[in-house]
Amino acid sequence: MTDTTRINGFFSEMEAELGPDAINRSAETAVRYGENTMPGGSRAVDGVLYPASTAEVQAMVRAANEYGIAIYPNSTGNNIGLGSRSPVLNGQVVMDLGRRMNRILEVNEKMGFAVVEPGVSYQAMYDELVRQGNRLMLDVTSGPPQGGMLGNALDKGAGYGPFFDHFGFACGLEVVLGNGEILRTGDGSLDSETLVNWHTSKYSLGPILDGLFAQSNYGIVTKMGIWLLPRPPAVRSFHFTFPDDGDLAEIVELCRPLKMSNFVPTLFRVSNDLYLCGSEGESPEYAASQGRKTISDEGRKALRERHGLGAWNVSGAFYGPSHEAMEAQINRVRDHFGQSGKATYIPHEDAGSIPPLQVAINAFSGIPSLGELGLLKWRPGGGNLWFLPGTPMDGDIANEFQTLARGIYEDHGMDYMVMNVCGPRFARGLHVMTFNREDADENARADACYRKLSEAVAARGVFVGRAPIDYHEFHMAQTMPAFRNACNAIKTALDPNNVVAPGRYGIG
Questions:
Q1: Domain extents for the chain?
Q2: Are 503 and 474 spatial neighbours (Cβ–Cβ below 8 Å)?
Q3: Radius of gyration of the chain (CA)
């Protein structure tokens, strides 16, 4: 059977079985679903599927096995800088789970969880919680409000509040495996129609299988339970600016004990000047060098003065019955950071008038916002990558990696933009690369910069937590052979015909 015969037969069967609303093969749609912000360019897509239920996902997967079709599922396709809706490889059929599978199936206020389909966005969940009385709070990213909660969790995305670990606070999955079978995880694995504990108990009899479906291609998750936090009566943020790049070491040392003791319930957002200022407008120096040089120290200083920010900016928050009740906690944090002699305090009331700090307040408050999308406009041309390594909460190591990364960015003419999201023992470095994808030289430099950063941190024992689609195979090749062999063996067992997203995270 030729490739054309297979793909035509597959789509004809899907249209006959599920109706015309379940498919789209127009050239315009294929182009739109193949678009991304990667240096490697858009992907060729062979069509799009729009399932409306788990049963329809099963039907599509079974037909894909029959005809030998590769399906690439996504939820809402808003993971900008990591791949958007685009498949990893050319010639796949995109399964858009978010178009018709976008229902909030349950909000259980008593037990504090929701059950969602893939297309439920942060904005949709927030709006529903407000409609129901605003008594529960979800943890949000600072990315697009239309981003999918389920997809973000499966890609190990995170937020900034106490429930920041989105996959860690997911409970109970429904999965269509690559062979078309349905698997339920946790207490959902019980062979029963009554599952009162499915979304409240993560660990049940036997192996914990949930993690197999994070950053993998072993199946298609069609339903997920997500734990929610009781909304506090008041959220009071605090912010500090520091004047010098080298202050990062001391900042990390100051943050760690406050998180280790869980005195501060949120994570710390430790952002450099360009990460915050870059969301507020285009680079003032891009035109002069045509993107061949990083912004000057004088240019950075001018941006800091304009926006009232520092070389480093620290944000966190407390939850309590009222702003007044949290005064003692705020004073303790002020005294703690004041030990440095370099920290300038910005109170909650003033931070709201500084747009990048308002983004932090929204994130701590479980309110989706568009603020950080402005980073995409720092340079023209639509290129955007995220480099996402993590380092221990050790000030000396943090400064070592800052110096390393700044040098590599500068060598490639990129502007160093980073936010370190700090917990008690570990900080994730959200490194942004905004570049002109329409300029061949700048596009190539962005790709080279990403690869050099990845090799340099790996040589020091640090790996990335997520990866843009251009680099899935590259990063998998950095792992030990036993890890790669195990991933591929699981793929063979659960998806023997390799129909679900071949190449995703370098598997299959």
A1: 3-99+496-506, 104-230, 234-467
A2: no
A3: 23
| The token pair that represents 257 in the structure block | 């004990």
Rounded CA-CA distance 390/398 in Å is: 10
**Tokens 């069967």 -> residue:** 13
Return the structure tokens found at 336: 């703690």
Maximum alpha-carbon separation in the chain: 73
- Of the candidates 211, 212, 219, which has an alpha carbon nearest to the alpha carbon of residue 165? 211
Q: What would the CATH number be for the domain defined by 104-230?
A: 3.30.465.10
Q: H or E element: which one contains 123?
A: helix 122-131
| H or E element, residue 298 | helix 297-307
Cβ contact 131:88 at 8 Å: no
The yes or no reply on domain 3-99+496-506 and CATH 3.30.43.10 is yes
Coil vs helix vs strand at 425:
coil
How crowded is the C-beta side of 117, counted as CA atoms within 13 Å? 16
Question: Is residue 44 a contact partner of residue 94, using CB atoms and an 8 Å limit?
Answer: no
Q: Where are the beta strands (DSSP E) in 208-343?
A: 219-227, 229-230, 234-242, 268-272, 312-320
**pTM check: above 0.90:** yes
pLDDT class of 2 with cuts at 50, 70, 90: low
pLDDT digit string, tens, across residues 64-106: 999 999 999 999 999 999 999 999 999 999 999 999 999 999 9
Element (H, E) at 46: strand 45-49
DSSP reduced 3-state for 504: helix
Q: How far is the C-alpha of 175 from the C-alpha of 224, rounded, in Å?
A: 9
- What superfamily in CATH does domain 234-467 come from? FAD-linked oxidases, C-terminal domain (3.40.462.10)
- 51, 465 in Cβ contact below 8 A? no
Residue 401 token pair: 């990696």
Amino acid at 126: Y
